[in-house]
């Protein structure tokens, strides 16, 4: 019996090893970061994080990479509908923690539907824009269906309440819409509408959300009150200096001055232990990941694939930007995690969906190029 290695070689040829390498580097930094603070956590979360990364890669990223992404367009509306259904279910049956209903108890873990809604939103918009191309750019009238599709999940997520993720969904959708092309008058009108609605948004925000905004604007007013977390995060980042204190030597984090160093403020621990150079290295890897994602979008074989890749890259971009800004007090604390660095099953799964779909677009781009090259030789 003869065995052939051609399929394996073919898959190795089209597989995006650059994307995988960048993801492994970021995830590895996240594991190192969690390991260094294991002694101050109730349980060693780095082991659980490695489990989530492994399961996410095998059962989410790989299937997403191998399932032809053009099928996502066929099921785009269904995927969006499932996302909305989960957001409604979590409001009714969700597990409440710190006054918020953001998680569904799945038995072996708590799922956060809003994380997965970010991916569903990108798939839906990619499908919509690829099927409704306006060469003269979009105006308010032609964007009404888009606004409705964006506004519904934002409202449901806000009601949990989760202001940060609601805004993130809006930011991701907004960038995808602008990428498609919007008339300047329409952009100006939207900006005016947002400014005019700011007072209404302030009145419907919860007390703790308004407190976070005020803390951001008046950081020195109450150093031992609501801004305790972010103030000590800034101290931790600054105390890292150029090269950091070293592995496991972060005094601010190790002594408990920075709450949640495994989640929203994971970057504060990394900055204190590895300093400016360590943070710069991490951000450069993120930058390379984003540039590679843009390259995948630019060379995608069709419009839908390009929009998918742009959307997934936008999710990663906004999460890195907002989380970094939170940690150094350039933005209010809104509970946005740092991709593949912060601990959390739902966050990891969301990123694995993003990586898997990016890998999918990249693989089929290479297959298409290979097929064209083979046809040219005939």
Which oligomeric state applies? single chain
Number of DSSP helical runs: 15
Question: What is the typical, i.e. mean, pLDDT?
Answer: 87
Structural class based on helices, strands and sheet pairing: mainly alpha
User: How big a fraction of the residues is strand?
Assistant: under 5%
Q: For the CA atoms, what is the radius of gyration? A: 22 Å
How many structural units, i.e. domains? 1
Note the overall shape.
Answer: globular
Number of strand segments = 3
Largest sheet: 3 strands, antiparallel
Strand order of the largest sheet: 1-2-3
- Which sequence of SSEs, written as H and E, runs from N to C? HHHHHEEEHHHHHHHHHH
Q: Terminal Cα separation, in Å? A: 31 Å
**Helicity, as a percent range:** over 70%
Outline the low-pLDDT stretches.
1-9
């Amino acid at each position: 019996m003869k065995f052939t290695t051609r399929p394996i070689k073919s898959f190795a040829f089209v597989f995006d090893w650059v994307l995988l390498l960048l993801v492994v580097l970021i995830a590895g930094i996240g594991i190192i970061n969690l390991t260094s603070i294991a002694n101050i956590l109730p349980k060693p979360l780095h082991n659980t994080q490695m489990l989530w990364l492994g399961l996410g890669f095998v059962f989410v990223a790989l299937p997403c990479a191998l399932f032809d992404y053009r099928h996502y367009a066929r099921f785009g509306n269904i995927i969006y509908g499932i996302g909305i259904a989960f957001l409604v279910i979590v409001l009714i049956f969700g597990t409440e923690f710190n006054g918020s209903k953001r998680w569904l108890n799945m038995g072996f873990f708590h799922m956060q539907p809003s994380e997965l809604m970010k991916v569903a939103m990108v798939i839906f918009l990619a499908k919509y824009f690829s099927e409704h191309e306006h060469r003269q750019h979009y105006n308010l009238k032609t964007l009404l269906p888009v606004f409705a599709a964006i506004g519904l999940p934002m409202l449901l997520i806000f009601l949990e309440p989760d202001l940060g993720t609601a805004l993130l969904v809006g930011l991701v959708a907004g960038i995808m819409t602008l990428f498609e092309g919007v008339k300047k008058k329409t952009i100006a009108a939207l900006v005016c509408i947002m400014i005019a609605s700011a007072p209404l948004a302030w009145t419907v925000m919860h007390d703790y959300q308004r407190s976070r905004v005020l803390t951001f604007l008046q950081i020195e007013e109450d150093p031992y009150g609501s801004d305790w977390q972010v103030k000590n995060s800034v101290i931790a980042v600054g105390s890292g200096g150029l090269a950091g204190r070293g592995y496991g030597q972060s005094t601010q984090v190790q002594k408990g001055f920075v709450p949640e160093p495994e989640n929203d403020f994971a970057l504060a621990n990394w900055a204190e232990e590895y300093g400016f150079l360590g943070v710069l290295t991490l951000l450069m890897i993120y930058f390379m990941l984003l540039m590679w994602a843009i390259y995948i979008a630019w060379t995608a074989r069709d419009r839908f694939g390009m929009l998918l890749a742009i959307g997934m890259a936008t999710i990663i971009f906004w999460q890195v930007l907002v989380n970094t800004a939170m940690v150094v007090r350039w933005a209010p604390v809104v509970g946005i995690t740092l991709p593949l660095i912060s601990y959390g099953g739902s966050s990891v799964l969301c990123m694995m969906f993003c990586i898997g779909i990016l890998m999918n677009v990249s693989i089929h781009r290479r297959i298409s190029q290979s097929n064209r090259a083979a046809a040219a030789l005939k």
